[in-house]
Structure formats: C-alpha cells, structure tokens
C-alpha cells in the first residue's frame, strides 16, 4: 500500500513513522509513506500557498492551484484522495479497515482557516475528521490515520487475533485486560481469569465489554443483539451503579 501525505510541513512526519507498528510495516514493505509539499508546486518567488478569504473574515485560506497540482502529481486511477478536516465525517475503525484495503491513499492536510471549497468539491473523494476538536493542521490527524491503517495490514502485527479483538472491531469497547502479578497493591485479578475455564472467560469478557460500552459509549449498543441473560446483566450492574452514585 502507498500513502502520500500532502503537507506544508513534511518535517512533522520525521519521527512518528519510525517507531512501533508503523515502522515494522514499512520495513516489511507493507506500506510506503511519502510526503509532498504544495509549496513545491507554486509559481511565485514567495512560494505562496494561502490568501485572504473572499467576503472578508479572519484567517487565511489555502489556495486551490497548489493543492490541485500537488495531488495531480501523485494521483493515479487507483488513488483515493481524502481531505483531513473538522468538517468531514467521523473517522472510525470501519473506515480504517476500508482505507487499509486501498492501493493508494492521498491524505491532504489542511492548515490555517481551511482550504478553498473548490478543493473539497472538485479534487477530493472524501472529507474525514478524527474528532470534534480543532488542530493547528491535518498533520496530527494524518499520523492517526496512517497508524490505524498500518496495524491492520496483514503481517504488521505478530498476533492477528490481537487486532481482531480490539475495541470497535466487534462494534463494542474492549474488555479489561490483566497480566502478572496476580495481586498488585491490594487489587486482585478477577478469579474467573485464572480458572482455566475458557467458556467462562469468554462469557466474562463479553459481559465486561458490554458493560464498558454501556458506561462510556452507549451509542454503540444500538445495533448490538443482546441475549436475555446479557440484558439482565447490564440492567443489574447499571442500576446498582446508579443507586451507588446517588448515595455517595
């Protein structure tokens, strides 16, 4: 897989992709990440890439000409061009999976007040946001997207099952995980995890995943099919927590 990062600050990426899973994926030739700078596609001495907005207002807007030239220099029929912008649809694990199956991904990093709308409408295939907050630019978002994609590529992670059981892969948040020591500062590992009863462990993990999702991301439960025992489990624990909270 090839990824091109369209950025005014290519030096931003000099470190994040040289460690961890993304580094392994690059060393194994599973993913190739390159940067391309719109300033190299300007035609004036000052390498101008932005200008004041029509109609007035604060801030500067990225001009369409350099961005078009930059993207067109790397685009192929197999490319997917994505603008990273707070106006885009929310990036999630399903979209990461979708992107990981692409042959070529071009990520356009916004800056300043934003980009000329003709870039959004005429150049990019998609517009994606990594969250409901504003960054100085799209570079940090690009790192998030690349890392989330790289770890999904076959061969990037030693144990593929570890990836398949992460939060959001099943539509729910992940279960709690424990390792040695069994007792740490008066906190014990749940007894069920050391019984060797695989069915009981699987049931406990499913219940804990449901409980974590109900507590922190109840919106994710909308499409989940729950058994009657699972419904009773959630009702019991959430009701208990509600009353404990009121009495505290």
UniProtKB/TrEMBL annotation:
<keyword id="KW-0808">Transferase</keyword>
<dbReference type="InterPro" id="IPR029026">
    <property type="entry name" value="tRNA_m1G_MTases_N"/>
</dbReference>
<dbReference type="GO" id="GO:0002939">
    <property type="term" value="P:tRNA N1-guanine methylation"/>
</dbReference>
<dbReference type="InterPro" id="IPR016009">
    <property type="entry name" value="tRNA_MeTrfase_TRMD/TRM10"/>
</dbReference>
<feature type="binding site">
    <location>
        <begin position="130"/>
        <end position="135"/>
    </location>
    <ligand>
        <name>S-adenosyl-L-methionine</name>
    </ligand>
</feature>
<dbReference type="GO" id="GO:0005829">
    <property type="term" value="C:cytosol"/>
</dbReference>
<comment type="similarity">
    <text>Belongs to the RNA methyltransferase TrmD family.</text>
</comment>
<comment type="function">
    <text>Specifically methylates guanosine-37 in various tRNAs.</text>
</comment>
<keyword id="KW-0963">Cytoplasm</keyword>
<protein>
    <recommendedName>
        <fullName>tRNA (guanine-N(1)-)-methyltransferase</fullName>
        <ecNumber>2.1.1.228</ecNumber>
    </recommendedName>
</protein>
<dbReference type="GO" id="GO:0052906">
    <property type="term" value="F:tRNA (guanine(37)-N1)-methyltransferase activity"/>
</dbReference>
<comment type="subunit">
    <text>Homodimer.</text>
</comment>
<feature type="domain" description="tRNA methyltransferase TRMD/TRM10-type">
    <location>
        <begin position="1"/>
        <end position="221"/>
    </location>
</feature>
<keyword id="KW-0489">Methyltransferase</keyword>
<dbReference type="Pfam" id="PF01746">
    <property type="entry name" value="tRNA_m1G_MT"/>
</dbReference>
<keyword id="KW-0819">tRNA processing</keyword>
<keyword id="KW-0949">S-adenosyl-L-methionine</keyword>
<dbReference type="InterPro" id="IPR002649">
    <property type="entry name" value="tRNA_m1G_MeTrfase_TrmD"/>
</dbReference>
<dbReference type="InterPro" id="IPR029028">
    <property type="entry name" value="Alpha/beta_knot_MTases"/>
</dbReference>
<dbReference type="InterPro" id="IPR023148">
    <property type="entry name" value="tRNA_m1G_MeTrfase_C_sf"/>
</dbReference>
<feature type="binding site">
    <location>
        <position position="110"/>
    </location>
    <ligand>
        <name>S-adenosyl-L-methionine</name>
    </ligand>
</feature>
